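Bit of a strange request maybe. I'm writing a small parser for structure token strings and I need a real example to test against, not something I typed by hand. Could someone generate the tokens for this chain?
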Amino acid sequence: MKSVTSKGKQNTRDLILHALKSSAQSKIEVLAEAADVSPITVRHHLNALQAEGLIEVDSVRRKVGRPYYVYSLSEKGNELFPQKYFSLTNRLLEELKDRLPPDAVNEIFVSLVERMMQERAGEFEGLPFEERLNYVINLLETEGFLARWEKTEDGRYQIIEYSCPYISMGQQHAEVCTLDKQLMITVLGTAVEQHSCMLDGDDCCQFTLPLRPSDIQINS
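Reply from user aminoacidic:
Good idea to test on real output. This should exercise your parser:
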């Protein structure tokens, strides 16, 4: 099966797939804007993707007027996105959890993030806070996540993940969920609160920084 190409080499098909990955259900007009093509072109690609079993379509009825259609990735479509783990990893985690207490296993994941960030020393420490947020998003993308950040109505920051490369592994080993959160904490230098999780059936993983921008002290 052909996978989704990397950013910078995306064709219209890939842009549509990424847009569908970013949103649980999308209308043709939204996909046309995301791919920067006409709705007619999007419809052509959607027909082809549906024929391949990569997307699903649902009819949404409204009180007045015709129903409209929304599109989403099928299970087969989700498999196009990189899954950065192997069956050996599951076996190793099972072995670790059999031999070590839960706190020790969690400490291993924290140490793993610390080692990852040591390799990136000097890349983000002197950045302004919002540039650090951009750095976090790019780092998460490198690790296989699809995410963005935004400001909430009360002026706080939040990070939203729409795709997690460890979703299947996390169903058996919830400890892997500490990786992305610990990355955020390390780069941003502040606490991060999680409000939703795809492992719990939510559409996305949502994290909020408890402090407003003026309260955050950046130590370079």
